[in-house]
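Annotators were shown the component list below and the corresponding predicted structure, then asked to write short factual statements about the assembly.
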Amino acid sequence: MNKNLFNKVWDNHTVGQLSSGQTQLFIGLHLIHEVTSPQAFAMLRERNLKVLHPERTFATVDHIVPTLSQARPFKDLLAEEMMSAIEKNCKDFGITLMDLNDKRQGVVHIVGPEQGLTQPGMTIACGDSHTSTHGAFGTISFGIGTSQVAYVLATQTLAMSRPKVRKVEVNGALGRGVFAKDVTLHIIRKLGVQGGVGYAYEYAGDTFARMTMEERMTVCNMSIEGGARCGYINPDQTTVQYLEGRPFVPRGRDFATAAEWWLSQASDQNAHYDDVVKFDATTIAPTVTWGITPGQAIGIDEVIPTLDSYPSDERTVVAEALAYMDLKEQQPLEGLKIDVAFIGSCTNGRISDLREAASIVNGHRVAPGVKALVVPGSQLVRQQAEQEGLDEIFKAAGFEWREAGCSMCLAMNPDKLQGREICASSSNRNFKGRQGSPTGRTLLMSPAMVAAAAIKGHATDVRNMLT
Amino acid sequence: MSAEVIQVVGSGVPLLLDDIDTDRIIPARFLRCVTFDGIGQYAFEDDRQQDPSHPFNQPEYKNGKVLIAGRNFGCGSSREHAPQSLMRWGIAAIVAESFAEIFFGNCTSLGVPAVAAKRADLEKLNAAVKADPTAEVVVDLKAMTASIGDVKATIEMPASARESLTTGQWDFLAQLLSNVPAIEATADRLPYVKSFAG
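Structure shown to annotators:
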């Protein structure tokens, strides 16, 4: 046996070969949200089609929901229209919708695992590129466009080409103040933002083996930022323990059967890979982006590289990034003033992220002039945080404590940067204009680093604030 | 069956830049919609606002059909709104050094060929478009070339996408639907569907 998980799962879900040479792949779990689904339902109506397996699609609302007042109708009439559309579509086609009145609502990639919908050995698709998050459970999970959402609704399948598989092996213990987010930013920095195109990433090695499921989700979430549409970690006892008792996970004897099958999907010991790369976790520092792609990142103890240090064919983008960010070669990020601090998103909006951030914030105040907000990834994360008193820690420090949603990660709701503001953000993209102001600037970092920046008023090394 | 896409012929738009992400192609605020109608006018909205010299601002490229772009074009989000906005702007083919995967798949789903060319060739195509914005660019999926007058470049594309486009089967829905018995048989073999469904 020398098969990796990716190929086992792919083969299990292969319906057949299409005339194009692609595989018709069965999708075990389909997740939808309000932004990329309305046009897909319109396609179904246009062609008079039904949803083939409505019980395999689950919907929630996250991208456009306001995180302050959620009273209906929303002030933003376009958002209200999208909300009404998903309500009607789910009702008409018999799909479970976890809406704002449902305690299970939240960012789609937080809800799936939280509810136990995400299980090892599955194929999972969603009209959102961060679907790679679910790979943390040993699944093939990837983002799709709206036409493909319609294909999954109508046929529970997709036409896909099998990618190559790269083993990204990381070994060694992470230093204090260094988190899963730093590992993933480090990998993207080293392999490049398109290094993963054509590959699925298998994250292997003892660093990931020691990680909790929430940390693994952070790593897999960012696969797409490195160009890999899908990234996964082999299921192990950590995975099984996380899933036990969750609402959609089988119980009793079925659970034992399930767990045994899940573990059997892991890559074989001598599995073949198309490529292998290795990193040493002990050398990774808290990592922060300085530019306009997630690969333009440095350790907080480094300075921005010189233009000349980049290959000549990358210098145009680097120069564009420096100009947009108004930063200079060899400038440190330590000390760079911030205007906004954002903790949340499908990358880092889980309870462990809020705990890490709260432990830094506890007993401090947000620096004058900094707007700081915490947006829990789901209503259940919010509830759990409140039970632990984390909300009180954040509020006492001057953070705003918001309702669950995607919020300022992509700023489709009212939470947006203004003008040239700089945001220390626990989210996943630092693209130009990403956080809602066409000229706004983003520094990606871990939630603990965002908390530290909020308190100091500038980007800073969280390791100096650990007690 | 969708229309066969064998050749795209039309004037070019020179945008030879790298790492153009989907947030730049269509900023998120324009995703607040329930149809793709009308989204074309917002293609590159923020880039156009900030850069008067952006090719999408220039009247001479207004009717361009073939977009010349750089490396990792369409990286970022899965939003089909990105190729939808380009298509509705009038772009019918994209020639770039490379594409992000989801964006590439979305283009194919819309019958918009996204083909790759070598950087040196892209530089030549880009220069030729700038030299004569009215010149016809011919993207030919049979010959696998992109040409403007004397400038001719070899293009590449995964065989599956090429096959789907040239045979008019890029709208996969009918094909996928024709296999429902095989779909159900696959589902029946999956233990999480049948034997231990939660």
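Statements collected:
1. Chain A has a mean pLDDT of 97.
2. The CA atoms of residues 234 and 266 of chain A lie 5 Å apart.
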